[in-house]
Design a protein that fits this description.
Length: about 700
C-alpha cells in the first residue's frame, strides 16, 4: 500500500491526504456528536424519570399512609401519558409490592418484593432500557421513607431519534467534507499546477535541450522561489551551453587548422611531408594489389638561397607559392605534388605508359619554371633539378624509392642543374659516399677532428719567419688526413663553413697570442671564404676571437680573394674598415686568378698581395708566368704593398723571386703546414724577433 502511494503523483498524494484528513475529522466529529447527543438524551431521560418519580411520590404518599391501593393504582395509571415508561411499581416501607402499572397489560409481572440491586444507577450506551427507583417520603416534618417507586423506561424511540439525528449529522458532515474537499482541491491545484508546469518545463529543457524555456513565476512562496532558482539555473546552463558551443566551434576551427597545418604547407598550400608519406604508402598498396606502377620525382630548386639572401625571405616565400601554382598546372588531376620543406618538392605520378611520358612531364616542369617570376617589382629567374625513380622497376619500398629519387636529383645538380635524371644504381654509390662524408663532417667539430695547421711565411732575403698562415685540416679518428680541397666545398654547400671558420679563427687567435707573447711573432694569416664573408656577424666574430685571446689586431691578418672583396656588401666593408683602422691587415689571396680590379686595390686599404701558386710553379722557365709575376711585384711596389709568393717548392723558383724583388714567400721549400707544436719548435730554434 505504501509502495503504491509512493508511486502516485504529488497531486494524487495531496488528494489522498486531504480525503484521509477530512474523513478522519468528519468521523471524529460524528463520533463526538453522537456521544454528545447520547449523553444529552441520557440526561434528559434520567431527569424526566426523576421528575415523574417525584410527582408520583407526592401523589401516592397519602395512599401509602392509609393503605389505599386503589388510589395508588390510579396515580400510577397516569403514566399512560408517558410513552417511554413501560411499567412502574410502588413498594411499601417493608418492600412489598403495593401497586403496579404496565403499559400493556399482561406483558410484565412485577416482583413481589423490592430489591434495590436490580435497578441501575446509570444508563450504559447501547442499553435499550433502564430501571430507576425513587423513594417515597412521608409528610413533613419527619420526612421518612415510607415506600419506593420503580420505573422502567424503554429507550427504543430514543435510539431511533438518535439514529435520525446521527444520519442527519452524517449528511451534513459529508456535505461539509465535500465542500472542504473541493476547497482543498482548489488550493491543492495552486500547488500542483505550478509544479506540473515546472516539471513540464524541466522535461523540455532536459529532453529537447531547449534552453529558451522558462518556468512561470505564479507565486511568491517556496514553489515560486524554486521556479526562480530553476530559471537562474537554466540561464546559467544556457550561458554555459552557448560558451560550450562557442568553445566547441573554436575547437573544431582549431582542429581543422591544425589538420591543415599537419597535412598542408602554409607557404605553398601544397600537401606537406606528412601527407606525402601517407600518399606514397597508398601508392605502394595500389601497386601491391592492382600492380599500378608510379614514378617518384624529387624537385630541388637551383640557387634558391640566392633569392632569399638577395630579396629577402618574404620574396622567397612568394616565389615558392608561385612555383607551387606552376607545378599544379603542369600536372594532371590524378598526379600528386607536395612540398617537403625548404626548396624541395615531390611528385607522385601514376597511370603513365612509358618512361617517355615521364620525361615529357619532367621537361614540362623545367620549362614552366624557367619563365621569369614577377615578385613585388623584382624579376626573378629560377631553375630546378629533378631526380626520378620508378616503382617497381627500382624498388618497392618507400624509403628506398625516396633515397633513389634524392640520389638522382643530386646527380642532376652535379651535371649542371636545370635538368632531370632517372635513378641509376651505379651513381647511387657516389651519392651515398657523399652523404656519408657529409654526416662525418657534421660530427667532426664535436669529435675535435678539425685541426689547425700552420705554414710559415718567411723573408726571401734572410729566410726569417715573420708569420704563419693558418690552414685547416680534417684528421679523422683513424688518423686519415682530409685535405681542404676535399671537404671545404662541401662545408660551404651545407653551411658548415661558418662553424669551421669560427673554430679556425678562435684557435689561431689563441695560438698567435701565445707566440706573440713568447717570441714576438708579427702575425698569423687566416683565410676567409666568400660564404664566411657574407655572414652578417663576420666582424663581431673576429672581434670576439681577438678579445677572448687578448690578441692585438695588428698581429692578425685576413686573407680573402679578389672575388670576395668585389662581392661584399657595403655594411661588411664598413665593419672590416673599423678593424683595419685598429691595425688588422688584409691580404689578397690568389691574386691574378680572379676578377682583378685596380679600383678596389686602390680604394681599399689592402696591406699585402699573395701571388698564386699557379704562376710560381711555372717559374723561371715560362715567360708568360714570369711576365705576370714581374707585373704583380711591380704593381705592389708602386702601391707600397707587400708581396708574398705562394707554393715555392724549388731553389730555382726561390732564386727567381729573389731576383724579381719579391719580399716574402711560403711553400714546401721552407716548410709544409705543420701542427702548432711543431711550429712552436721552429720558432724556438730560430731568431724570430722583428728587426
Amino acid at each position: 500500500m505504501l509502495k503504491r502511494f509512493r508511486k502516485l503523483p504529488i497531486g494524487k498524494k495531496l488528494q489522498a491526504i486531504n480525503l484521509l484528513i477530512i474523513g478522519l475529522i468528519t468521523l471524529l466529529a460524528m463520533i463526538s456528536l453522537c456521544f454528545y447527543m447520547y449523553g444529552t438524551l441520557r440526561d434528559d431521560y434520567r431527569n424526566d424519570s426523576k421528575t415523574i418519580s417525584s410527582l408520583l411520590a407526592e401523589s401516592v404518599t397519602s395512599a401509602l399512609l392509609f393503605g389505599d391501593k386503589k388510589a395508588a393504582q390510579e396515580s400510577l395509571a397516569g403514566l399512560r401519558t408517558v410513552s417511554y415508561v413501560t411499567h412502574a411499581e410502588l413498594y411499601d416501607k417493608a418492600g412489598n409490592l403495593f401497586a403496579g402499572y404496565a403499559k400493556t397489560a399482561g406483558t410484565f409481572s412485577a416482583p413481589a418484593n423490592f430489591d434495590p440491586r436490580g435497578y441501575q444507577q446509570d444508563i450504559r450506551f447501547g442499553s435499550m432500557a433502564f430501571d430507576s427507583a425513587f423513594p417515597v417520603l412521608s409528610i413533613a416534618p419527619n420526612r421518612e421513607q415510607i415506600g419506593t417507586i420503580t420505573i422502567h423506561v424503554d429507550l427504543t424511540d430514543a435510539y431511533v431519534h438518535l439514529g435520525y439525528q446521527t444520519f442527519a449529522l452524517l449528511l451534513i458532515g459529508l456535505l461539509c467534507a465535500a465542500l472542504v474537499s473541493a476547497v482543498l482541491s482548489k488550493l491543492q491545484k495552486s500547488i500542483t499546477l505550478p509544479l506540473l508546469s515546472l516539471t513540464e518545463t524541466m522535461r523540455k529543457v532536459s529532453k529537447d535541450g531547449d534552453f529558451s524555456e522558462r518556468a512561470i513565476l505564479s507565486s511568491q512562496d517556496e514553489i515560486g522561489e524554486l521556479a526562480s532558482v530553476f530559471n537562474q539555473m537554466v540561464d546559467e546552463l544556457s550561458h554555459r551551453e552557448n560558451s560550450l558551443h562557442q568553445e566547441l566551434k573554436e575547437r573544431r576551427r582549431i582542429e581543422a587548422r591544425l589538420s591543415q597545418i599537419a597535412h598542408f604547407d602554409t607557404v605553398t598550400l601544397l600537401p606537406n611531408r606528412h601527407s606525402f608519406n601517407g600518399r606514397i604508402d597508398r601508392a605502394l598498396l595500389n601497386y601491391k594489389y592492382d600492380l599500378e606502377k608510379f614514378a617518384l620525382m624529387y624537385i630541388d630548386l637551383d640557387n634558391f638561397k640566392y633569392v632569399n639572401d638577395t630579396f629577402g625571405h618574404h620574396v622567397g616565400d612568394l616565389l615558392l607559392g608561385r612555383i607551387a601554382e606552376r607545378l599544379r598546372k603542369s600536372l594532371r588531376q590524378e598526379d600528386f605534388v607536395a612540398r617537403l620543406g625548404g626548396d624541395e618538392f615531390v611528385i607522385i605520378m601514376s597511370n603513365f605508359t612509358d618512361i617517355l611520358q615521364i620525361s615529357e612531364v619532367a621537361g614540362k616542369i623545367l620549362a614552366t619554371l624557367q619563365a621569369p617570376f614577377s615578385l613585388e617589382g623584382h624579376e626573378v629567374f629560377i631553375s630546378a633539378s629533378i631526380g626520378i625513380t620508378i616503382c617497381p622497376d627500382n624498388s618497392e619500398e618507400s624509403e628506398t624509392l625516396q633515397r633513389q629519387a634524392d640520389n638522382a636529383m643530386y646527380q642532376a645538380k652535379h651535371l649542371g642543374k636545370n635538368n632531370f635524371q632517372f635513378y641509376q644504381a651505379e651513381l647511387s654509390l657516389v651519392h651515398e659516399n657523399r652523404i656519408n662524408i657529409e654526416a662525418q663532417l657534421r660530427r667532426s667539430l664535436e669529435r675535435n677532428e678539425i685541426v689547425v695547421y700552420y705554414q710559415p711565411i718567411v723573408e726571401i732575403t734572410g729566410e726569417r719567419i715573420i708569420g704563419f698562415e693558418a690552414l685547416v685540416r680534417w684528421i679523422k679518428q683513424d688518423g686519415t688526413i682530409i685535405q681542404p680541397a676535399e671537404f671545404i666545398p662541401l662545408a660551404e654547400e651545407i653551411g658548415l663553413i661558418i662553424d669551421i671558420g669560427r673554430h679556425v679563427l678562435n684557435t689561431s687567435a689563441v695560438q698567435t697570442a701565445a707566440w706573440v707573447d713568447r717570441f714576438g711573432l708579427a702575425f698569423t694569416s687566416v683565410n676567409f671564404s666568400s660564404r664566411q664573408f657574407q655572414h652578417s656577424n663576420i666582424a663581431s666574430d673576429i672581434l670576439n676571437a681577438l678579445e677572448s685571446a687578448h690578441l692585438n689586431p695588428v698581429n692578425f691578418e685576413m686573407e680573402i680573394t679578389e672575388s670576395v672583396l668585389m662581392d661584399s656588401s657595403s655594411d661588411s666593408m664598413n665593419l672590416l674598415g673599423q678593424l683595419i683602422e685598429q691595425g688588422m691587415g688584409i691580404a689578397i689571396d690568389d691574386f691574378g686568378t680572379g676578377y682583378s680590379s685596380l679600383s678596389y686595390i686602390t680604394s681599399f686599404p689592402i696591406s699585402k698581395i699573395k701571388i698564386d701558386r699557379s704562376f710560381v710553379a711555372k717559374l723561371p722557365d715560362d715567360k708568360n708566368a714570369l711576365a705576370v709575376v714581374t707585373a704583380i711585384i711591380g704593381l705592389a711596389k708602386s702601391l707600397n704593398l707587400k708581396v708574398v709568393a705562394e707554393g715555392i717548392e724549388t731553389d730555382e723558383q726561390f732564386a727567381c723571386l729573389a731576383k724579381l724583388g719579391c719580399q716574402y714567400g711560403q711553400g714546401y721549400l721552407f716548410c709544409p703546414p705543420v701542427p702548432a707544436i711543431e711550429a712552436t719548435k721552429m720558432l724556438e730554434s730560430r731568431d724570430t724577433r722583428s728587426a
